[in-house]
Amino acid sequence: VLASKSPENPPAMVKAGAIGALVGLVASGTEGGQVHAASTLATIATVTKDYKAIVAAGAIKPLVTLLRMGSQQAQTYAAAAIASISEDPTNKSPIISAGAIAPLVRLVRSSVSADAQVHASDAIANLSSNHPPAQNAFNEAGAIPLLLALLESGKAQVSAANALTHLLSPGLGV
């Protein structure tokens, strides 16, 4: 993806107005378009930290919809974008209200790709950090035993441990 080839590309894409088009593609593009658009939004969010522009373009609902109903690859990149956007504490409640908890917990299961598990665990960590209602909701959705299972081996160990830290530590701003 162009956004990840050079650190100058994501800010240039934001300046050129790409966010709105990418959100539109996530919402109603082909499967391949949705995958690349979600991946590019995740990269833009990670590199530029311009979460407000992405949220202002209406990205949360289409990303959560993609998280629920997209292909596995699309779900992986939607989780990555949500993990990045949720680094801004003001985005936690809108992401949770859009219905992200159940699909994120589903992506932590062992039957999905390691990348999906990493991104979903990162999103769970960000959403539950200093947010007791999210901590309770993830617990009720069954996240804790699934995250504990990821600690045994694999690529998602660090992300799962981080998510557990935030789920089990109210008020901890790690």
Question: Termini, distance in Å?
Answer: 31 Å
Question: What is the number of beta strands?
Answer: 0
- Write down the Rg: 15 Å
**Global mean pLDDT:** 91
Largest sheet composition: none
Number of contiguous helices: 13
Stretches where pLDDT falls below 50 for ≥5 residues?
none
Helix content: over 70%
Structural class: mainly alpha
Taken as a percent bin, the fraction of beta residues is under 5%
What is the N-to-C order of secondary-structure elements (H for helix, E for strand)?
HHHHHHHHHHHHH
From the spread of the alpha carbons, the general shape counts as globular
Structure report:
The protein is an all-alpha fold and 174 residues long. Helices cover 73% and strands 0% of the residues. It contains 13 helices and no strands. It has helices spanning 2-5, 9-15, 18-28, 31-48, 51-56, 60-69, 72-85, 92-97, 101-107, 114-128, 132-140, 143-150, 157-168. Helix 4 runs parallel beside helix 7, helix 10 runs parallel beside helix 13 (157-168) and helix 12 (143-150) runs antiparallel to helix 13 (157-168). It is globular and about 45 Å long. The N and C termini lie far apart (31 Å). The model has no long low-confidence stretch (mean pLDDT 91).
Summarize the structure.
The protein has 174 residues and is mainly alpha-helical. The protein contains 13 helices and no strands.
